[in-house]
Amino acid sequence: MAHHDQHPLDHPEVQASSTPKYVFAFILAMGVMIASCLITVVGDMSQLATLTWIGVLALIAVIGQLYFLFKLDTSKAMIWHTVSAAATIPLFFIAIVLTIWMFHHLEMRVMLGAG
Amino acid sequence: MFMDVQGPSNALFGRLPMILDLHYNNPWIMFAFALVVIGGIGTVAALTYFKKWGWLWHDWLTTVDHKKIGIMYIIVGLIMLFRGFFEAAMIRTHQAMAVGPDSPGFLGAVHGYLTPFHISEIFTVHGTLMILLAVTPILVGFMNLIVPIQIGARDMAYPFLNAVGLWLTTAAAALCMISLFVGSFSHAGWVGLTPLTQLDHSPGVGVDYWIWLIQISSIGSTLGALNLIATILKMRAPGMSLMRMPIFSWTTLATNIIGLTSFPLLTVALFLLTLDRYIGTHFFTADGGGNFMMYTNLFWLWGHPEVYFVVLPAFGFLSEIIPTFSEKPLFNHTSMIAATMGIAGVSWLVWLHHFFIMGAGPEVNTFFSVATMLVGIPTGVKVFNWAFTMYKGRVRLETPMLWALGAVLLLIGGGMTGMMLAIPAINYVSHNSVFVVAHFHNMFLIIAFAIFGAVTYWWPKAFGFRLDERLGHIFFWLFWAGSVFVFVPMYALGFLGMTRRLDYIAHPSWWPLLALEVVGIALYIASVAAFVLQIYVSFRDRERNKVTTSDAWETSRSLEWAAHCPPSFYNFAATPIVHSNDEWAWRREHGVTSVVPEKYTSIHMPKNSMVPVVLGVLFIIFGFAGTWRIGWMFFGSIIAITAVLIFRMFQKDIDYNIPAEDVEAYEREKLKSVDRAAQDNVHQTGEMGDAGTDSPAHG
Q1: B361, A2: Cβ pair inside 8 Å?
Q2: How many helices (H) and strands (E) does chain B have?
Q3: Range of the domain at A60
Q4: What's the total number of domains in chain A?
Q5: How confident is the model over B37-96, as pLDDT tens digits?
Q6: A84 touching B, CB under 8 A?
Q7: Are residues B551 and B689 in the same domain?
C-alpha cells in the first residue's frame, strides 16, 4: 500500500497549485468556448472553415487546460502524468480519425441526402 | 426539462406507482423471488445462529485486504454466473420447445413458455451480467487476490479505492437482482440496440436499469484499473524488473491499460443515451437529427477492447498453470510479454468488425478486416509458446491442467471461426446468425475454462487446502461435454441460417440440433452440481486436503508460492528480493526456500473502513432513483455520496504499524500450525529445522 507519512500539502502536485494560473485557465476556457459558440451561431463561414476553427479552438482549450489547470510539464513530479496524457494521444487519433473516416464513407454510401 | 414518460408518476415516488400496474403472476419470477427470499432468510438465520455477524462485518465487509476483496469479487461473480447460467438454460429449453406452428404454448406464451418480451429481457440480462457482472468481477477478483502477492507487494497501491471498486460492482449486481422483482429489465440486447433503447421504443424502466447498473460497474472497473496499474508499476518488490514480472501480472497490466482507456468511452456513450432518454436530446435518435449508428460505433469502441479486457487475464492464467504442470519454465517469457502487449495494442483497431454490414464500404472494411486478422499473430505466438512449454515437459494432468488444455483447444476453434468472421464477405452472410453467437461463446468458454482452472490452481493459496481432485475431473469432463453439445450444433445452426435472439423457430428441421443443445444444457447442469459438490466435499475434508507448504503443487514457479497458504494478512513477513521471473522455481533450485526472514521489521498496513460499504449502499439508491426517476432521492444520493467522500478525506486514523516483534510472533504461530514433518521436508526454516534444499515430489 502507499505510504501516508507525507503531509498532503507537501506533495509537489499540490504545491504546484496557483490561483493566477487557475483563473487564467478558466478565462481561457470560457473565451474559446464563447468564440466557438459565436462561430457556430453567427459565423458565416463554409462548413470546412467552421469545423477547422472549432478544431483549432478545441486544441487551444485542451492544451491550455492541460498546462494551466493540470500543470502537466516535464518536471520530476509531473512527468509521469504528462507521459500518461501523451500516451492517450494515439488512442484519441485512432478513435476520432477512424470514426470520421468510417462515417465519411458511410455517408457517401448509405446516407445520401441526409445532409 | 425532463421527458414526459408513459404511465403513472409523481414527484415523491417517481415512476414507482407503475409497479402497481405490472403483473406479478409470472411463475418464473415468483420462483426466482422465492429462491432469493429463502436463500436470504437462510443466510441471515445462519449468521445469527452461529453469531457470525461481527465476523462478517469486521473480517469481510469492511476489509481493505486485497485478498479478501479478491475473494468477494469472485463470490459475487460466481453468484452472477449461476444466475446467467439459469437464463441460458431457459433460452435453450424455450427455443427447443417453440419450434413450428404446432408447438404448444405454456404460461401465456403462444409457443414455448416464454413470451417474446420476456425472452428478450432474458437474453439481454444474460449477456449484460455474464460479461460485466460475472466474468469481469471474477477476473478482477483474481487480479486482486494474486497480483500483489505475485509482485511482492503488501497490498494494492490504494486499498481503500480497491474496496470502493468492489462495492460499486456489488451495487451494480444488486441493481440487477432488484430489476428481477421490481419493474423489468431491458429488452434491447446487452449491446443496447439503438433506436430500440430510446424512450419511444422502450418506455419502461428496463433500459434505465441497464444504463445505471452498467454506469456504476464501469466506474468501479475504471477505479480498479487505475489501482492495478499503479500497484504493478510502483509497488513491485526489489529485483522484480518489468521483464522479470510473471505473465499473469503482465496480462493484468495490459488488461487494465485497456480498461482505463476504454471504459470511459462506454460511460460517455451511455451518458449521451441517458440524456436522450431523460431530457430529450437527439444524440442517437433515429429522427430529430440523431445518429444511432454513432451509438453502435461508440459502444464497440469500448466493446472490442473489452473483449481483450476479459480474454487477456485468462491467457495469464494459462501461462501460470501450464508451466507448473509441465514442470518446465514458460517457453520464451519475453515473446509472451510482447504478444500480450501486442494484443492490447491491436485491440483498439478492430472494433468496426462488429458492424461490417453497416455499409462503410470496401476500403473501411478491408482496413478493419486486416487489423482483426493481425490479432491472430500474437495470439498464435501464445498458443505456440504454451505448446512448446509442454513439449518434452513432464505433463501432469491434474485438474487445473485439464482446464488449461481445454482452454487452449477451445482457443483454436474460437480463433479459427474468429478469422472467418474477420472476413467481411463471410460476415455479410453470417452477421446476426447464431454462428456469431457460437463463436463468441466459444471465446468466452476459453475464459470460463481458464477461470475454473485458476480457481482450482490458486484455491490452496487462498484457503490452505486443495479442492477434491476426483470431483474436479468429473466437473471438467461434464462441462467439456456440455460445451460440445451446446455449441457445435449452434455453429451448424448458424450456417443453416438461424438468426440470434429468436423467440419462435419457424424451421422444424432445426429441431434435432436444438434438442442436442438441450442435452448440452443438461450436461452443464450436471457439471454445476459436480462443482458445488466439489466445493462441499473439499470443505468437509479440508483437514485431509490441507496444504502444508507454501507451494501447493510442488512445481509452482512464481513468487506468490513463496507466501504461506493462505498468506498472512501482510503477505510476506519481509519484503522479498526477486532474482528471476520464476522466483519460486529459482529459490527451489538454489535451496533458499525458507519463509523465515533474517530480520523482522515493522509492517505498515491500512485500516478497515466502513465507508466503501456505505458508498455501495448509496450507489444502489442512486441507481434505483435514477431508474425510477425519483428526483429528490437521486440528487439526495449524489449529495450523500459527496458528503461521505469528504468525510473520508478528513479521516486521519486510516493506517497502522505492526511492530516487528508482533510479526515475528505471528509468523512463529503460523509455522507451528503447519505440519512439522512437511516443514522439515520442504521449508527448512533455520529456527525450526536444518537449512536444506527443497525437493519437489515430481522434480
Answers
A1: no
A2: 22, 2
A3: 16-71
A4: 2
A5: 999 999 999 999 999 999 999 999 999 999 999 999 999 999 999 999 999 999 999 999
A6: no
A7: yes
